């Protein structure tokens, strides 16, 4: 529904990943071009996030210039940012309607910095309105803009044979190593499992895949 509102043809769809075991992963339609993970932001996670950031800043990492990454400056918009990350890094595979608001946003923001993209989204009515209406359609109460939400979305994508974690709260994309179109879903799920292993007593994890319809 959300993709349709943004002017994307329905040849790709978001599907639930019901579990991380091979037989449950085999139920997900292929190919998969992105995975969105919803997870709780806990103290353990925040500690890990700080350490990871310091480690990468010290050691450096290889991030292809073709990775589309944006910062998150709007509260509670992590789902929208995750969606933009998923679509933007697979835009060559998507069929957009001519008047698609998301297509225009991506074309306008391609040459911007991650910070400029965030600022642009703040002013970009068409996507924000869609985000708000789709949040209202959801089963849960929409959190108010200033309410503290402790669940967060990230996107996992394959760009040029590398698996990237894109999280607008982080200063840069995280390169999780090599992947391929065939192994991408399994590789992305391995990254999701690490999130779960860091917080073994937490149950609030949910993965959805952007799959061929």
Which descriptors apply to this entry?
Ubiquitin C-terminal Hydrolase UCH-l3; globular; 213 residues; six-stranded antiparallel beta sheet; alpha+beta
What order do the helices and strands come in, and which of them pair?
Blueprint: H1 2-5, E1 12-17, H2 22-25, E2 32-40, H3 43-59, H4 78-88, H5 101-109, H6 114-123, H7 125-137, E3 151-159, E4 162-166, E5 174-178, H8 184-198, E6 206-212
Antiparallel strand pairs: 1-6, 2-3, 2-6, 3-4, 4-5
Spatial gap, N to C terminus: 13 Å
Largest sheet: 6 strands, antiparallel
Model regions low in confidence, pLDDT < 50 over at least 5 residues: 135-147
Q: What fraction strand?
A: 15-25%
**Percent helix range:** 25-40%
Determine Rg (CA atoms, Å): 16 Å
Protein described:
With 213 residues, this protein is of the alpha+beta class. It has a single domain (1-212), classed as 3-Layer(aba) Sandwich (Ubiquitin C-terminal Hydrolase UCH-l3). The chain has helices at residues 2-5, 22-25, 43-59, 78-88, 101-109, 114-123, 125-137, 184-198, and strands spanning 12-17, 32-40, 151-159, 162-166, 174-178, 206-212. It has a 6-stranded antiparallel beta sheet, sandwiched between helices. A hairpin with a 7-residue loop joins β4 and β5 (174-178). The longest helix is centred in the first third of the chain and has 17 residues, at 43-59. The radius of gyration is 16 Å and the shape is globular.
């Amino acid at each position: 529904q959300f993709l349709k509102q943004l002017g994307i043809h329905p040849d790709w769809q978001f599907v639930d990943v019901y579990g991380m075991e091979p037989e449950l992963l085999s139920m997900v339609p292929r190919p998969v071009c992105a995975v969105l993970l919803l997870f709780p932001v806990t103290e353990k996670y925040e500690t890990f996030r700080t350490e990871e950031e310091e480690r990468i800043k010290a050691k450096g990492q290889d991030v292809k210039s073709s990775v589309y990454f944006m910062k998150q400056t709007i509260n509670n918009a992590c789902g929208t940012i995750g969606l933009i990350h998923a679509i933007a890094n697979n835009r060559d595979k998507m069929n957009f309607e001519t008047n698609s608001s998301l297509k225009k946003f991506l074309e306008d923001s391609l040459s911007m910095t991650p910070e400029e993209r965030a600022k642009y989204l703040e002013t970009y009515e068409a996507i924000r309105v869609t985000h708000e209406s789709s949040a209202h359609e959801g089963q849960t109460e929409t959190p108010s803009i200033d309410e503290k939400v402790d669940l967060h979305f990230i996107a996992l994508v394959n760009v040029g044979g590398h698996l990237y974690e894109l999280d607008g709260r982080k200063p840069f994309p995280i390169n999780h190593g090599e992947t391929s179109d065939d192994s991408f879903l399994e590789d992305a799920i391995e990254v999701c499992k690490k999130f779960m292993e860091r917080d073994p007593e937490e149950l609030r994890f949910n993965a959805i895949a952007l799959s061929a319809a």
